[in-house]
Amino acid sequence: MSAVIEKALWLIEHRYGEDLSLETIANHCGVSRFHLSRRFQAASGYSVTAYLRARRLTEAAKALAAGAPDIVDVALVATYGSHEAFTRAFRDQFGLTPEQLRARGSTDGIPMVEPIRYDATPFIDLPPPEITERPTLLLAGLSERHPFNKPEQVPAQWQRFNPFIGTIPNARDEAAFGVVSEARFGGEGFQYTAAVEITRLGELPSELKTLRLLAGRFAQFRYRGHVSKMRAMVHTIFNHDLDALGIEAGEFPNFVEYYGPKFDPESGSGQQEIWVPLKP
After folding, report:
1. How do residues 142-164 score in pLDDT, each as one tens digit?
2. Which of 44, 70, 171, 221 could form a disulfide with 129 if both were Cys (CB 3.0 to 4.6 A apart)?
3. Can you point out the beta strands (E) in 135-279?
């Protein structure tokens, strides 16, 4: 899959709750609307706007099946300005109304559109890591579990967490962390925590939890580019670089994603880091 399509999919999956237009997505990818439309349709089978609409409605359907109490709130999150417009689009997509789906309590049998995977490149070139001693970090964030075969669910988790950034009490700055833990071969999935650092414990929104990363030695890998390559970066580290460098990883966390001041969350570009704990 081309870099243009990867960037388009990243933007849609991370910001489908915003007022995205075809022009906005094309500008993000650095191409014309015509070029993006043609490439996206050929690669995915969807037009850009059809995929964006289907993803919004699919996430809305999940919320309703889980018992969301206010359909208007769900409609607003899906960027529909009225209950009527939302109901019309929802019925066109799924063949039943939002009220009917909520009453069913299940999305079984309806045509859901899940995220398209966008990391076709298995390996990327990374410079050698820096071995660093890191102090204990106290984080606050949103923690969810995901199946190994559906890591593309993580972007939607970041969408749910992003509104908390800048509002969390005692946050040190707006650098963000993605902590992967409990990922073991043969297991049922992995725990992912989207978080920011806090200076001390305090009252948090009920949706959030704290996580303490103990001091230790880490192999700190860096990559500069678009964040759609993050999964390829992880694949490269754990399936090539650690063995090639003779590095033995620790057990907790599995690794930490770090998005610091050299990363632009709006464009998804800049320097990203992966911290791998070293075995004592």
Report:
1. 999 988 777 778 888 999 999 99
2. 221
3. 137-146, 176-181, 190-197, 209-213, 216-226, 255-259, 263-264, 269-277
How many helices (H) and strands (E) the chain has is answered by 10, 9
The CA distances from residue 211 to 21, 118, 160, 181, 208, in Å, are 37, 29, 18, 11, 10
Quick check: 98 and 80 in contact, CB under 8 A? no
Strand bridging mode 190-197 / 269-277? unpaired
CA 219 to chain centre: 23
Q: What is the mean pLDDT of residues 196-208?
A: 94
What are the b/e assignments for 90-123, b being 16+ CB within 10 Å? beebbeebbeebbeeeebeebebbebbebbeeee
Residue length of the chain:
280
What is the residue whose two structure tokens read 């500008």? 27
Question: What is the DSSP track for 93-129?
Answer: HHSS-HHHHHHHT--TTS---PPPP---------PPP
Cα gap 59→53, rounded to integer Å: 10
CA separation for the pair 214, 116 (Å, rounded): 35
